[in-house]
Design a protein that fits this description.
The protein has 177 residues and is an alpha+beta fold. It is 25% helix and 29% strand. Strand 1 and strand 2 (30-33) form a beta hairpin.
Length: 177
């Protein structure tokens, strides 16, 4: 087996075998290491997750908000494992103590300097392929929110400070600051 084949033949067992404190994701059998998030990243994560959870609670909704690190087994296989920054799951049968088994309804990734290509390209297509309904890329450096509503085959771009409509929750919008 050549080096390239070995790189793409990793499984979730390889993720679980990483040393404590080392975070990584697995896409199509290839490991991608994750950097420690910045303070700005964490502030945005907390703000967004709180707004979403408050909205769901106020509406008496059944969807659940989880934040990283939280395991998502996208294909229910051993070759795809991600830890989105924020994920919303509306089907409780997908959730157990290990994480989410299958595609969440909505994923939000917050860009950090070291993860741009992953979030803008690799995950964009992987999330669409696996059945995620809505995907947001929040880019603090560009002060931009890219919204992909896969079910409607829509892609829209918003600036920080603008109201961003949430496709999976009619009548709900978020202003990213």
């Amino acid at each position: 087996m050549d080096a390239a084949s070995k790189l793409e033949s990793c499984t979730i067992k390889d993720i679980y075998a990483l040393p404590d404190g080392v975070r990584a994701e697995l896409i199509d059998g290839r490991i991608y290491y994750m950097a420690t998030p910045t303070r700005t990243h964490q502030r945005i994560l907390l703000s967004l997750s709180r707004m979403i959870a408050d909205y769901i609670d106020s509406e008496g909704g059944d969807c659940e908000v989880n934040i990283a690190p939280f395991s998502v087994f996208l294909n229910n296989d051993d070759k795809n494992y991600v830890e989105p920054d924020i994920l919303i799951v509306c089907d409780p049968s997908k959730l157990d103590e290990k994480g989410c088994h299958g595609a969440p309804d909505w994923i939000i990734e917050i860009i950090s300097p070291g993860n741009k290509a992953m979030d803008y390209f690799k995950k964009l297509f992987k999330y669409q392929e696996t059945g995620v309904r809505e995907y947001w890329i929040v880019d603090p450096m560009k002060e931009l929110v890219m919204v992909y509503r896969y079910e409607k085959e829509e892609m829209e771009q918003y600036l920080f400070g603008e109201d961003v409509p949430v496709g999976i929750f009619e009548g709900f919008s978020i202003r990213v600051q």
